[in-house]
Amino acid sequence: MSKILVVGANGTVGSELVRLLSEQGHDVVRATSRASASAQEVHLNLVTGEGLATAFDGVEAAFLLSPPGHTNQNELLNPVIDQAVASGVQKIVLMTAMGANADEAAPFRQVERHLEKSGLAYNIIRPNWFMQNFHTFWIQGILEQSKILLPVGSAKGSFIDARDIAAVAAVLLTRHEHDNQEFDLTGGEALDHDQAAAILSHAIGRTIAYEEISDEAMLAQLLAAGLPKDYADFLITILGFFKAGYSQAITPAVEAITGVKPRTFAAYAQDYKDAWTV
Predict the structure, then answer these.
(1) Radius of gyration of the CA atoms of the chain, in A
(2) What beta strand segments (E) does 138-274 contain?
(3) pTM for this entry
(4) Domain limits of the chain?
(5) pLDDT band at 34 (very low <50, low <70, confident <90, very high)
(6) Rounded to the nearest 10 degrees, how much is the dihedral formed by the CA atoms of 4, 5, 7, 11?
(7) How far apart are CA 147 and CA 87, in angstroms?
(8) Could you give the CA distance from residue 104 to residue 255 in angstroms, rounded to a whole number?
């Protein structure tokens, strides 16, 4: 079986991807920004470049994403792609975000273009907003006020379960019929946040409501949570794209690649209902 490097192995998508690939019998190596503690880990700090020269030793395929909190994705990831080429890696699956290809000057788009020109076999996956945001990034308002607090109006989003993103990545890393293609990944339904709140309410047995807040209030929350100003501004910008309706499209990619329909928001809410228990 292949030796596969997973960058972001402790994250929402990466941890599930490691599990899936390991179950399939692959030799999975987890990249960690800390000193590696086992033979199944390699030290790789994308911000400082530490460990980059040896991270891909013996690796045949790699899953690549940008660490959260940074907006200079091209400066962080382009050298990683170059090192993968130099190390003899055969394929990279790059995760960016839905809409990343809308602006050729955007840092994420520059990474996509760099990978396309690298000569490596590749896939680019652009997931929509994660369902898991509701029990991570948006959870404070739900726990403290029973409210989803966002500046997105009544726009709909085709939220995707991170477990489905990992399932797609696992197929693309280990098979080649989809090589050199890019995919927007979405769930199978588009919901506004009132509908999402109703589904969460049903799952946990208490009322959750959606309340629209201003961009300024959202920015204050993000800064209070410790996010860098440039990254907080970036999040406000892409939440604005959501409000404008750019996140409602539904694509067939998850089922086309994995053979399984994407999880519903109701199934996600049931699986994670303990997260909203107070």
Answers:
(1) 19
(2) 147-150, 181-185, 209-212
(3) 0.96
(4) 3-128+160-186+249-262
(5) confident
(6) 50
(7) 49
(8) 28
